[in-house]
């Protein structure tokens, strides 16, 4: 599905993140529990703000953003 240039995605569900990135939902839940992936809860719905997801993907699961874990 193509997004309109006027519409910017505001949030993602964990299943949507999993489908888009290849990371398992279980892994993402563990990242949420560890405090590395911030979420907002709306009843049973768990959403990740787009800017939080982008920041998480930029730094990886290392909360300090150390690049020594990068695969070369």
Low-confidence runs:
none
CATH topology: Arc Repressor Mutant, subunit A
Terminus-to-terminus distance = 33 Å
Q: Helices and strands: which structural class?
A: alpha+beta
Proportion in helices: 25-40%
Provide an overview of this structure.
The protein has 3 helices and 3 strands. With 72 residues, the protein is of the alpha+beta class. The protein has one domain: Arc Repressor Mutant, subunit A (Orthogonal Bundle). Strands 1-3-2 form a 3-stranded antiparallel β-sheet. The N and C termini lie far apart (33 Å). The relative contact order is 0.16. The mean pLDDT is 87.
What's the short version?
The chain has a single domain, classed as Arc Repressor Mutant, subunit A, CATH 1.10.10. The chain has 3 helices and 3 strands, in the order E-H-H-E-E-H. 38% of the residues lie in helices and 15% in strands.
């Amino acid at each position: 599905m193509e997004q309109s240039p006027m519409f910017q995605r505001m949030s993602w569900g964990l299943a949507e993140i999993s489908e888009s990135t290849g990371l398992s939902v279980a892994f993402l839940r563990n990242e949420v529990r560890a405090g590395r992936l911030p979420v907002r809860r709306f009843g049973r719905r768990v959403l990740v703000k787009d800017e939080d997801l982008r920041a998480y993907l930029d730094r990886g699961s290392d909360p300090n953003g150390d690049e020594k874990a990068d695969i070369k």
